[in-house]
Specification:
The protein is rod-shaped, with a radius of gyration of 70 Å. Among the domains are: 149 residues, Beta-Lactamase, CATH 3.30.450; 165 residues, Heat Shock Protein 90. 61% of the residues lie in helices and 13% in strands. It has 499 residues and is an alpha+beta fold. Helix 4 runs antiparallel to helix 5 and helix 7 runs antiparallel to helix 10. The strands form three sheets. The chain has a five-stranded mixed β-sheet. The protein starts with a helix and ends with a helix. It contains eleven helices and eleven strands.
Length: 499
């Protein structure tokens, strides 16, 4: 607080001295001027009375009388001398006697004309030495008063600053230093009504809020630590459960792979085992149907032989489809890719499906690309896929309906094959079922048609093997639209198309 007190005193002392000393000097000077006026007035009155006395008693010829009339003037401490002279300058009386007034010295004088005797003058000289001594005394007293007042003001300022400003600020500084060094917050406890009190109250309030905030933070930290411990335990339990579940899933995966391998092996072996008797049945049925070794003996046997042949071929087609699906799903099937002309591919499909459309009373249309386009695909699989899609359309389209096979280039450079019909259609929620293995949606008309539900599933697998996708849009009574989309890399570049 010393620096602040020194600055405070440096401001107080010049201001105090600058105001006090001129004020004291001005008051003393004013008092001296007033005393001088009083002195001049007093001496003037005495001189006037002496002149009147000299004139009334006609003391021109009586020196002792004049001397006695002037004697009362010597009583005044400021009186120096007095002379009573005639008009011709003759000294009639003087105080002090026989000396008169000597010239020189710092004195004041008053000269009065006395009427009797005519042209006589009374000269009185007086001195303000007493006033000057009094002035010096007053100045000394004034300076003493100023010095005492100054010291009193300094002492009062020091004591007042010490207790009013210095002590609260010292406590505030001590509390801040203690909080900085030890981290412990100490309130000041001095709450005056002035600005210093407002500062100390604000500091104590800040300390209180900091303590509350620290308490809250400690509680929150404790809660976070407890939560962290709980989270660690839960994490360990979760990791243990994940590990156990992972082990279970690995075992389940191994079992599923083993089951899938066993299923594929079973399907493969069973299909091959079924092919031999089926081919024999189909062959014997054809021989009986064509009477290669003579007549059967009854006309009904001809129909039975035809039914046996058709059923055998249908069952063989199912087995072939099951084998194809098993090969694709097991990852053992590979594509035999070659460059195929789109127009030629579509023509082959239409020529195969046209007799079926004619026998079913369904119109078959096509919409081909205007310019020649060639693709790098597995001809057999794509052709069989399109024939199966067209066959589904014929199967589920009533007599008088229409089926269309269209092809178009996509904006991104890919190609689309679209098979659409005006058949019975299906609900949107039945589409995933139709695309699944052995999937058949529940429809009275569809139930009257032959089918195993493998065609659409096999078509989707074939398209996905080529890196494309198959989508279906359909509604009951509005037909079905199947879109097969192949990527740009399957389309032979335009330069190679021309070549």
């Amino acid at each position: 607080m010393r620096g602040l007190l020194a600055r405070f005193l440096l401001i107080l002392m010049p201001v105090f001295l600058g105001l006090a000393i001129p004020s004291i000097g001005y008051l003393i000077d004013l008092q001296i001027r007033m005393d001088r006026e009083v002195l001049a007035t007093r001496i003037g009155n005495q001189a006037g009375r002496a002149a009147m006395a000299l004139a009334r008693h006609d003391s021109h010829g009586n020196q002792l009388l004049a001397q006695d009339l002037l004697a009362p003037l010597a009583v005044d401490r400021a009186f120096v001398c007095a002379e009573f002279r005639a008009g011709d300058g003759t000294l009639l009386a003087a105080v002090p006697p026989a000396q008169g007034c000597l010239d020189g010295g710092t004195v004041e004088e008053i000269v009065l004309v006395v009427r009797r005797p005519a042209d006589s003058t009374l000269r009185i000289r007086f001195s303000d030495a007493e006033l000057r001594e009094f002035q010096q005394l007053k100045m000394s007293l004034g300076l003493s008063v100023v010095a005492f007042a100054f010291l009193s003001a300094v002492l009062a300022a020091f004591v007042g600053f010490r207790f009013i400003v210095g002590r609260p600020l010292h406590l505030l500084q001590t509390a801040i230093r203690h909080s900085t060094t030890t981290g412990e917050r100490l309130p000041i406890g001095i709450h005056g009504k002035d600005e210093i009190g407002a500062i100390t109250r604000a500091f104590d309030e800040m300390i209180r809020r900091e303590d509350e905030r620290e308490t809250t933070l400690r509680y929150t930290n404790a809660m976070l630590q407890a939560s962290e411990v709980l989270l660690t335990r839960n994490n360990e339990r979760l990791e243990q459960r994940v590990h156990e579940r992972t082990v279970e899933l690995v075992h389940e995966k191994l079992r599923a792979e083993a089951a899938n391998e066993a299923k594929s092996r079973f399907v493969w072996i069973t299909s091959h085992e079924l092919r031999t008797p089926l081919n024999a049945i189909i062959g014997f049925a054809e021989m009986m149907e064509h009477r290669m070794f003579g007549p059967l003996g009854h006309r009904r046997y001809d129909g039975y032989a035809r039914d046996i042949r058709m059923s055998g071929r249908h069952l063989l087609a199912i087995i072939d489809s099951v084998l194809d699906i098993a090969k694709i799903e097991s990852g053992n099937e590979t594509l035999h890719e070659e460059v195929v002309d789109v127009g030629e591919l579509m023509g082959d499909c239409l020529s195969v499906i046209q007799p079926l459309c004619d026998s079913s009373g369904v119109t078959l249309d096509s919409l081909q690309i205007g310019t020649p386009v060639r693709l790098t695909i597995d001809r057999t699989r794509i052709k069989q896929m399109l024939i199966n899609l067209l066959g589904n359309g014929v199967k589920f389209t009533p007599k008088g309906g229409r089926i269309e096979l269209a092809a178009a280039l996509c904006p991104d450079g890919g190609i689309e094959f679209v098979v659409s019909d005006t058949g019975i259609g299906m609900r949107e929620e039945d589409i995933p079922t139709a695309l699944s293995t052995f999937g058949q949606f529940d429809n009275s008309l569809s139930r009257r048609q032959n089918g195993t539900g493998l065609g659409l599933h096999l078509a989707r697998l074939t398209v996905e093997m080529h890196g494309g996708n198959l989508s279906i849009v359909s509604a009951p009574g509005r037909g079905c639209r199947v879109t097969v989309r192949l990527q740009k890399d399957r389309v032979v570049p335009a330069a190679d198309q021309t070549a």
